[in-house]
Every structure is written in structure tokens, then in C-alpha cells.
């Protein structure tokens, strides 16, 4: 059923080819220097790199850098851009994501003034003058957005500045990402992050990987799965699409046993549920575990609350309802349950297929319920593991860049600021867009990211940002947001150093709760006028807030920021000594190797998860006549192999057989039923717009489901929102294809 020319394993020679191409290129020497620089990898949150050298993972194993790291480094090593001299705004607005990124590195500050159609250079003095006026607006009308590439130190300072200004409007990319995991896990276990360390993962004999395309987005996780299969363990994949690298993966870390052998087996069992139906599948697994006598009653009694209701719910939910909702047979569910129930340590790991759903928090609950029913939490080799996105996105949450501030952090900050923090709830990312659209935001600072293109309904995002007077985009490279997400008065782009260029040390936190120390570095932008994120925030804060009660100027030295972090952030005590010891560490209170959790009772709380009602709109709902030939499908929107979020590095996706960005991956039977052939061009209509001339590619994707790439596709839909976490349902977008 798969596309004509897709490879039969993930990873493999194309990866080696890419390494060779980049590292032997004229920039090769610079890339190697950065690969060996003592700092955490820029790309994903798996946490490779740090003090033991660029190639070392958290367990001290070598050869753990992947091609995605090279991709990210190469992109930051581009020469300086002077796009303001060569392009007018209308020309910049014609560029696609890749072309915008390929303009080069931002190396001097720029401003686009109201009425002008040209970005121009601006001095730092004038920037600070504009900032002094812009940040003196009423606190409710100030907001920040951030993305997880910056350091813990910059993140801590950002929230300290915003809260000192009495604003809790700290939107973050995690609101579009793992918010459902954080909200769900906190309620269950009293801690919102993974409870599994890398060391603990190595003791598992089963991994259930749900809604993750790790071969592309967390490649070194595949090394763990290869090792697990080698020691006789099992991997269950739950994903509506067969991602080739989840079936077989050729890892360069194992040249002989994996590369030369044409790849190592990854999945032992591959289940393809209906998009958005994971709760039904997990309730089914629970029901089957009960029927097969594989529940750990003693564990439930001793370490959990409300387990009886979970069992009752599973028992009372009819099989018919379960299988019709998730589209997986009772037999297959029983096989999955048997594997989970008879393994000695199961890690449940998940990514965006789980969280970017209207019932994202319920998805997380249903997975964690399954872990608890089988005693797979609170012991080595088992537990719940959200696979985090950006390399320091989790650190942002830890540092208090969130609208759900921990009590302990609030209290310490109140002591520091010698007054109560504002109790007015802040805007998360979606709320920020809504407020901006209503004209309720005057000033926005974006610490990295691409607020415009990361959101659903790009026309709405553009309108909303256009209502804000002043936007500061703190960035390393130009992106679509800088050209489409324009403020009413002043749009300002501030160029900053990357993690391996900062003149001071910084730290970052991996998805496995491990804190990395990043050494000082140098930039290749010799004639640039860049600043460090820390210096920038401190300077703005100093000018607006003075030097009392916080001595902002002193915080230019990140050592003092780390001292503050040590006093303020639970579990981060060791960071206070890291400048002396150089010792990277696991944050305390997060990894549960004993069934004593972070809740007030020490027990895990379980929550009943109702099955979702997965209705499909009809053709007529898309404003077309019932007689129009075509098909309604559920679109999952996500990443191609060669992109990092909104930044496209290369157009196609080799592993899915999709040659360019304007493709839709479809099931052959669906296409034929609708009268389409492969490579035919169709229109894909959502509830907010349409894309035309989209090429059909046949792939191994479940019937009724389809897949397209963001950010381009974000123009056609509004997305439902998970009410409990604010996460948009990017993975269940109804579309009409005709
Ligand atoms: N190279 C690279 N690395 C990255 C990123 C990048 O863009 N490029 N982005 C980073 C970030 S911020 C993040 S959040 C992560 C994202 O990492 P992922 O979550 O792996 O990325 P997605 O492309 O969103 O794909 C998620 C998977 O969910 C599946 N899926 C869709 N719908 C469902 C469903 O209903 N149920 C289930 N079970 N599965 C479903 C899709 O088929 C797809 O395989 O990666 C991080 N790392
Ligand atoms: N349809 C759809 N939409 C989605 C998703 C999806 O799966 N489908 N995924 C969502 C998810 S999971 C996420 S996380 C968001 C991502 O949303 P964002 O995090 O907002 O977007 P990015 O594309 O990662 O941001 C890229 C920009 O960050 C800047 N940058 C890079 N490094 C640094 C640095 O060190 N410092 C600073 N200051 N700037 C830097 C560069 O200028 C670059 O252009 O998108 C979301 N949107
Ligand atoms: S797995 Fe993630 S952290 Fe490790 S090298 Fe690859 S992109 Fe970097
Ligand atoms: Mo993300």
C-alpha cells in the first residue's frame, strides 16, 4: 500500500550522506567545531551534548549526535543577512519558509515602521527608547511569547521581568505542544514531566510509543529502541500512519549490526487507530487487561486513588463502542494488552499525536491509567514519558514561563519582589491571539519562535498581531512571522546569539529532566551587532524597573541568575553550584523510581476518561454541494523530515515519499473511492480556507486519515481547542478533498 519509492527503513544511508555533504562542505570545519562545542544540541529535547562533549548522551554513551543536530547548526552558521537592503516588504512576503530562513543569520537590529514597506536598521539606543514607552503600558496589555530554544537563564529573567511588571501573560510554544501532558501528569502524579530517566528507560523491556514520529524528530530515541529489541524487549507503536522508521531503522551509531544489516527492527506490534481515538484504544487495552487477569490490584490499592472507577469504567464500556471508535479489533487490542501485562517494565512514551487533540488531557490520563493498572509507574524501567519538543522547552516551564505558576515559585518571587504577584490569570498562546485580535494587547515581546506561523488560522494570527502596537521579535534567523506578523506601529527584529555563541555560560533542561551546562562560545558573525538574550532582557528590565528590589544589572552575570534559580525553582538546587562543580544533574522530585509520587498523599490519582465522539462533518459543511465529487477526511498536520517546526530546511519528505510541501498523504482506497489517482492535483478545503493544486501521494495511512505539512497548511483551518490545556487539535482537522 505504501508510496512507490519510499525506503524500507528509516535513518540509513541518506543520513550518512547528509553528514558527509555538510561536514565536508566549506562550512564543514565550523560545523565540526560546533558539534564538539560543550553545549546541548539545539534541535530536540533528547538532551545530547553538554559538558562531556557534543556527542555524549545523558548516560555517557558516545556517538549520539544525529543529522538533525547538523541541520540545526548548519542553519545557524549561515552568513549575515542584509535583507533590508535587497528586499521590500511585499517581496519578503512572497518568500516561503525555506527562503526566509535561507536569507541568513540576523546580525543587526531592524525596524519596520508603520506605513513603511521596508525594514531599516535601527540603533540599540532607539530600541531601548521604544521599549521604555512600550513596556510602560497597563500590565494587562503587555505580553510575551517564547519558544524553547533559549536558555533557562533567559527564560527565568523573562518571567521575572513580566511578573515584576505585574503581567502574567507568559504565552509559550508549549501551549501548542505538550500542555496536555503537563496538565494531565501534574494532576495524576504531582509532576508534569517525564518520570523516566534515560538510565531507567534502559531497564524497560517494553516501550509503547504513541503519536510520535521519533525517527525524524527525536532520532536518538531510536537507539534506545534498537537496544531494547536487542535485549528481547517489545515495542508497540500506536500511530494512524506507518512511519517507515518506526518499523525498521538503520542507526549510524551501530554501523555493523544496524546500518550494514539494512536496519534494525523497531515495532513488534503496529496499531493504526482512527485519529483522535487513543482514549478508546487505551480503555480497550484496560478492559482486556482486566479480562486477562493482568491487573496489579496490590499496587493499585497501595499507591493509587480512584482505581476502582477506572476498572468499572473499562468493564462497563461495551466492546462495540471501543472498537468502532478506535477502529482496532478486539483481537489486536488483546495482543497489545497481553504484551503490556506480561512485560516486567513498560515505558509509555508519547508526542504530538496524543497531545494535539481536543481531548489531549484525556489521552494522557488514559495512557497513565494503563501504566498504573499494570504497576508500571514508580519503578526503574517503567513509567510515563512525554517526549518533549524544542531543546529547552521543558526548561521554560520549570523557570516559571507558564500561566500555571507553581505555589513554591510564586512565594519565593513574592519574597524577592517584596509584594504579592498579580493574581490576574495570564494569556496562554491561543488566549493571547484572541486578546490581541480584540485589541487588548499593546506590546508583545517574542523570545524566539514564530508566533504567527505556529498558530492555526494564519489569517486570524495576522489580523491579531496587526492590532498590537509594538512587537519585539528576538530571533536568530528571519522567519515568516517577521514578514506577516506585523505590528500596528513598530515591528522590531532583535538579533541574538545562539546557545553556542553566548559570551556567558547558560543551562538547558532535557525532556528527561537532566540539566546541561553550556559553555561560552563565539559567533562567526564578525561584523555583527548582536546581543545575548540575557543582556537584552536585563537591559530592558533595568530601564523600566530600576535597580530595586531586583538588581537587574548584576544579573548580566548569569552566575547570579543561576543562584536565583537555585533558590526559586523546586528541584534545581544544584544549579547554584554548577559554576564551581561543572556538574550536570537530574532535577530532583521528577524521576519516580519508587511508587511515591509528588501528590499531597504520595499516591497517584486516576481519572476516568470518556470515549470521544468522533463525528465527521459532511460535504455541505464545507460550503460545497452534496453532489460535488470528493471525500471528507481527517487531516493530521505535522512535520516533514527536513524541517524544524515552522522552519523548512528542505522541501520534501523522502521517508514518506512526499517530494514537495504541497502534498497530501492519502490511503489508496480512499482516493480510489473518491475517483482520484496518485499524483493528481486536488483542492483541500478546511473551515478557514483552502489549498489548491495539492498533489496526492499514496501512503500507508489509515483509511479516512490524511497528512499534510505545517506551517503552510495552517492557513486552511481554525482547530478545535482542548479546553483543559488550551492545546489546538492540529492532529484532527476535518477537510474536504476535491
Ligand atoms: N527534526 C525535527 N525535530 C523536532 C521538531 C522538528 O520540527 N524537526 N520539532 C520538535 C518539537 S517542538 C516537537 S513538539 C516534536 C514533535 O515530534 P512528533 O510529535 O513526533 O511530531 P509530529 O510531526 O507532530 O508527528 C506526530 C505523529 O503523530 C501521529 N498521529 C497523528 N494523529 C494521531 C492520533 O490521533 N493518534 C496517534 N497515536 N498518533 C497520531 C502522526 O502520524 C505522526 O507520526 O519534535 C521536536 N523535534
Ligand atoms: N499545524 C500544526 N501547527 C503546529 C504544530 C503542528 O504539529 N501542526 N506544532 C506546534 C508545536 S509542537 C510547536 S512547539 C510550535 C512551534 O512554534 P515556535 O516555537 O513558535 O516556532 P519555531 O518554528 O520553532 O521558531 C523558529 C524561530 O526561532 C528562532 N530561534 C531559533 N533559535 C533561537 C534562539 O536561540 N534564540 C531566539 N531568540 N530565537 C531563536 C529563529 O528565528 C526561528 O526562525 O508550532 C505548533 N504549530
Ligand atoms: S536526538 Fe535530538 S538532542 Fe540528540 S542529537 Fe538528535 S536532535 Fe540533538
Ligand atoms: Mo513542540
Task: Write structural notes for this entry.
- The structure is a single chain.
- This protein has about 750 residues and is α/β, with parallel strands linked by helices.
- It folds into four domains: about 10-75, no CATH class; about 85-175 and about 390-585, Rossmann fold, CATH 3.40.50.740; about 180-385, 3-Layer(aba) Sandwich (Dimethylsulfoxide Reductase, domain 2), CATH 3.40.228; about 620-735, Barwin-like endoglucanases.
- The strands form seven sheets. The chain has a seven-stranded mixed sheet, with helices on both faces. A six-stranded mixed β-barrel has the order 21-27-24-26-25-28.
- Helix 8 (about 150-165) runs parallel beside helix 28, helix 15 crosses helix 17 (about 305-315) and helix 15 packs across helix 19.
- The longest helix is centred in the middle third of the chain and has 14 residues, at about 280-290.
- The radius of gyration is 25 Å and the shape is globular.
- Bound molecules: ligand MGD (2 copies), iron/sulfur cluster (SF4) and molybdenum atom (MO).
- Iron/sulfur cluster binds near residues 44, 65 and 219.
- One ligand MGD binds near residues 238, 639 and 645.
Amino acid at each position: 500500500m505504501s508510496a512507490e519509492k519510499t525506503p524500507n527503513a528509516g535513518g540509513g544511508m541518506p543520513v550518512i550522506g547528509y553528514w558527509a555533504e555538510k561536514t565536508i562542505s566549506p562550512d564543514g570545519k565550523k560545523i565540526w567545531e560546533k558539534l564538539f562545542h560543550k553545549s546541548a544540541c539545539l534541535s530536540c529535547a533528547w538532551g545530547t551534548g553538554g559538558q562531556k562533549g557534543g556527542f555524549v548522551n545523558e548516560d555517557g554513551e558516545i556517538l549520539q549526535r544525529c543529522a538533525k543536530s547538523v541541520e540545526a547548526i548548519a542553519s545557524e552558521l549561515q552568513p549575515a543577512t542584509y535583507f533590508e537592503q535587497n528586499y521590500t516588504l511585499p517581496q519578503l512576503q512572497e518568500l516561503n519558509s525555506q527562503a526566509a530562513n535561507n536569507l541568513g543569520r540576523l546580525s543587526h537590529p531592524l525596524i519596520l515602521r508603520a506605513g513603511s514597506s521596508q525594514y531599516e536598521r535601527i540603533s540599540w539606543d532607539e530600541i531601548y527608547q521604544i521599549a521604555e514607552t512600550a513596556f510602560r503600558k497597563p500590565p494587562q496589555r503587555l505580553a510575551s511569547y517564547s519558544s524553547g530554544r533559549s536558555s533557562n537563564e533567559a527564560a527565568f529573567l523573562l518571567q521575572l521581568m513580566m511578573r515584576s511588571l505585574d503581567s502574567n501573560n507568559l504565552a509559550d510554544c508549549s501551549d501548542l505542544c505538550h500542555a496536555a501532558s503537563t496538565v494531565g501528569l501534574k494532576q495524576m502524579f504531582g509532576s508534569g514531566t517525564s518520570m523516566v530517566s534515560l538510565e531507567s528507560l534502559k531497564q524497560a523491556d517494553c516501550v509503547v510509543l504513541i503519536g510520535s514520529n521519533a525517527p525524524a524528530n527525536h532520532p536518538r530515541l531510536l537507539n534506545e529502541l534498537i537496544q531494547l529489541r536487542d535485549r528481547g524487549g517489545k515495542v508497540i507503536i500506536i500511530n494512524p500512519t506507518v512511519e517507515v522508521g518506526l518499523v525498521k531503522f538503520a542507526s549510524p551509531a551501530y554501523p555493523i549490526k544496524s546500518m550494514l544489516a539494512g536496519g534494525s527492527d523497531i515495532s513488534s506490534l503496529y496499531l493504526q487507530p482512527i485519529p483522535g481515538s487513543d482514549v478508546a484504544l487505551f480503555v480497550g487495552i484496560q478492559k482486556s487487561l482486566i479480562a486477562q487477569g493482568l491487573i496489579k490490584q496490590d499496587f493499585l490499592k497501595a499507591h493509587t486513588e480512584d482505581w476502582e472507577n477506572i476498572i468499572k469504567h473499562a468493564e462497563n464500556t461495551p466492546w462495540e463502542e471501543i472498537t468502532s471508535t478506535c477502529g482496532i479489533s478486539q483481537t489486536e487490542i488483546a495482543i497489545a494488552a497481553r504484551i503490556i501485562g506480561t512485560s516486567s517494565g513498560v515505558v509509555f512514551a508519547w508526542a504530538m499525536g496524543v497531545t494535539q487533540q481536543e481531548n489531549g488531557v484525556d489521552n494522557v490520563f488514559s495512557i497513565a491509567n494503563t501504566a498504573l493498572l499494570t504497576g508500571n509507574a514508580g519503578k526503574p524501567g517503567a513509567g510515563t514519558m512525554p517526549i518533549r519538543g524544542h531543546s529547552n522547552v521543558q526548561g521554560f516551564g520549570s523557570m516559571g514561563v507558564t500561566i500555571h505558576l507553581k505555589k513554591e515559585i510564586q512565594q519565593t518571587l513574592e519574597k524577592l519582589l517584596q509584594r504579592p504577584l498579580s493574581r490576574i490569570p495570564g494569556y496562554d498562546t491561543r488566549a493571547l491571539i484572541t486578546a490581541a485580535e480584540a485589541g487588548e494587547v499593546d506590546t508583545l515581546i517574542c523570545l524566539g519562535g514564530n508566533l504567527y506561523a505556529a498558530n492555526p488560522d494564519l489569517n486570524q494570527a495576522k489580523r491579531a498581531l496587526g492590532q498590537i502596537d509594538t512587537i519585539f521579535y528576538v530571533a536568530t534567523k528571519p522567519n515568516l512571522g517577521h514578514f506577516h506578523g506585523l505590528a500596528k506601529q513598530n515591528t522590531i527584529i532583535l538579533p541574538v546569539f545562539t546557545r553556542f555563541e553566548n559570551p556567558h555560560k547558560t543551562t538547558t533542561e532535557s525532556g528527561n529532566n537532566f540539566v546541561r551546562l553550556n559553555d561560552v562560545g563565539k559567533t562567526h558573525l564578525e561584523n555583527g551587532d548582536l546581543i545575548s538574550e540575557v543582556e537584552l532582557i536585563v537591559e530592558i528590565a533595568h530601564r523600566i524597573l530600576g535597580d530595586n528590589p531586583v538588581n537587574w544589572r548584576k544579573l548580566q552575570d548569569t552566575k547570579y541568575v543561576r543562584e536565583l534559580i537555585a533558590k526559586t525553582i523546586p528541584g534545581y538546587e544544584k544549579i547554584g553550584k554548577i559554576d564551581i562543580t561543572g556538574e550536570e544533574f537530574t532535577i530532583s522530585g521528577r524521576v519516580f523510581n519508587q511508587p511515591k509520587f509528588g501528590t499531597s498523599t504520595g499516591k497517584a490519582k486516576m481519572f476516568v476518561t470518556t470515549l470521544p465522539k468522533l463525528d465527521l462533518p459532511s460535504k455541505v459543511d464545507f460550503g460545497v454541494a452534496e453532489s460535488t465529487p470528493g471525500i471528507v477526511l481527517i487531516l493530521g498536520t505535522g512535520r516533514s523530515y527536513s524541517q524544524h517546526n515552522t522552519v523548512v530546511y528542505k522541501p520534501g519528505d523522502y521517508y514518506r515519499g512526499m517530494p514537495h510541501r504541497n502534498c497530501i498523504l492519502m490511503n489508496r482506497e480512499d482516493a480510489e473511492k473518491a475517483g482520484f489517482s496518485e499524483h493528481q492535483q486536488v483542492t483541500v478545503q478546511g473551515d478557514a480556507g483552502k489549498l489548491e493544486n495539492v498533489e496526492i501521494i499514496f501512503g500507508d495511512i489509515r483509511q479516512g486519515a490524511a497528512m499534510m505539512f505545517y506551517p503552510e497548511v495552517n492557513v486552511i483551518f481554525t482547530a478545535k481547542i482542548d479546553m483543559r490545556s488550551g492545546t489546538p487539535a492540529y492532529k484532527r482537522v476535518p477537510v474536504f478533498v476535491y
